[in-house]
Structure formats: C-alpha cells, structure tokens
Amino acid sequence: MTAHPNTSTYQRMAAAIAFMRKYYQQQPDLAAIAAHVQLSKHHFQRLFTQWAGISPKRFCQYLTMEYAKSQIAIAPSLLELTMTTGLSSPGRLHDLFVKLEAMSPGEYKNGGAGLKVDYGVHITQFGVCLIAQTERGICNLQFLDGVIQPEAIHTHLQTVWPNAQLSNKPTVTQSISDRLFTPKDNPPLTLYVKGTNFQIQVWRALLRIPLGNITTYQDLANRLGRPAATRAVGNAIGRNPIAYMIPCHRVLRSSGELGGYRWGVERKAALIGWEAGQVEQSNSHQ
C-alpha cells in the first residue's frame, strides 16, 4: 500500500494532540506545538484547522479535564433524553445514521458459514482502517496501525469468521470509508455484529450517545439497569468490533480521564476533540 497524504497528516495531528494533552497545564503556545511536529506555526495552524475544523487553541480546550467533567455532569440527563427520543433527537442531525443487527445464536455458532465477507483497507483522517462487510451489513471496522499489521488482516478475519468466504475487495468497501467522517443525508448504515446478549445491549446503548457528547462507564451501566456492572460494561465496550461507528470512544472514566481504547488513547482523544469541533462548527453555521 502506497503512502497517502492523510496518513502523514493524521500522524502529525496525533503527535500534536499527544503533546497538548501532556502539557495542557502549561498551556503550550502555537509555536511550541508546531515545533514539536516539525512545522512552522503558520503551516501547522492551517493544516490543523483544515483537519479539525477548528483552531489548535480551541481544540485544546476540548482535551482538558475541566471540559470532560462538564460533559460528564450532563451525561445522565443526556442519556435519559436519547434513550427516549433515539435517533430523532436534534443533537443527532450531524451524526452517522446507524442501525445495528445482531447475529442469531445459530449464526454465531456456525462461524459465518454461508456468509460472504468483502473487506478492504482504507485511508481515513484518523489513520489506516480495515472495513469488512457482508450482505447483511458492516461486520468489522478496525484502525490498523499498532493493532493489526496489514499482512495479518486475512488471518485476523478468519479468526472472527472462520467459516465465511473472505474476499479482499476494497472497491466494495470504499463507499463506507467515504461516509465515515463526512456524514450526509444518506440511507442508514447497517451493522451486522456477533456478541453476547449483554454485549449487544451495551453496543446499542453506545449508539444513543450523540456526536460531540460523552458519558461514563458508570452512567452507561446505570442506564442499562446494571449499576454494579461497570466492569462488565467496560469489557463489552472493549470488545466492540466496529470502531467509531459504535462510538465507544465517547465513554470516559467518572474522573474525567480518558480510560482505555483498543485503537489507542491518543486516537480516542483526537476523535473526542474532532467531534466537539464538528458540532461547534455546525452550530456556528445555523
């Protein structure tokens, strides 16, 4: 796979975000952040704003504990609202419209027998990702760097779908990649996932968290009627097979700390900040 401008751009943005998070108490200026990623401050300002939709200074505010805690404070009422109104909520207008279909127990056990799984590797503004889909819906989305090596993709999918017919067809999955971070008024994207009943419950609850908002593991457990199951909720979130589209990155620790993320904590921070910026940008145009 040849290099792509978006790959190096995301790597620079991730490095800048990591630097901003590490030194946020010192409030590093634009010149210091730009120097860290070996760019002039004017070039960095332009590149970052083009990538995020907002300035580095504004983005940095979305990375602070104070911002996280302010969002966590409204999370219970937000979840109450979205559990009631669902995808018709005004706050969801700029989010992906996703519906989730779960495999039946029989389909789960047969390891994908009779399924055709097409997959492809794509460049996104958050790095290289693998997308796999069946006729029933999208069944896998993983950011690859640092998690799965490109040469191991087929083997990885075989472990998940041992009896399925796997085909490397990036032209088939390209349309999904095109829609990931530029949601428009398109038909819903269907996800076809396998998991335990509890995992499916948790993943459905994640779909209720609107773009630009965050909640906590505890609040999610409360909404599921399992307040003592915070660890189990965290484990289910960690088994999420479809990055970004099932937005597990929107769940933090009650302290406001990011917590874990199977595709990298810096990517989690980047996604949270980027989404907050998208909402801010959208609201300013209304």
Largest sheet: 4 strands, mixed
- In total, how many beta strands? 8
Q: Gyration radius, to the nearest Å?
A: 19 Å
Shape: globular
**Which architecture of the largest domain would the CATH scheme give at its second level?**
Orthogonal Bundle
CATH topology of the largest domain: Arc Repressor Mutant, subunit A
Helicity, in percent? 40-55%
CATH superfamily of the largest domain, called what?
Answer: Winged helix-like DNA-binding domain superfamily/Winged helix DNA-binding domain
Structure explained in plain terms:
By secondary structure, the protein is an alpha/beta fold. The protein folds into 2 domains: 5-61, Arc Repressor Mutant, subunit A (Orthogonal Bundle), CATH 1.10.10; 65-284, Arc Repressor Mutant, subunit A. It contains 12 helices and 8 strands. A hairpin with a 2-residue loop joins strand 3 and strand 4 (137-143). The radius of gyration is 19 Å and the shape is globular.
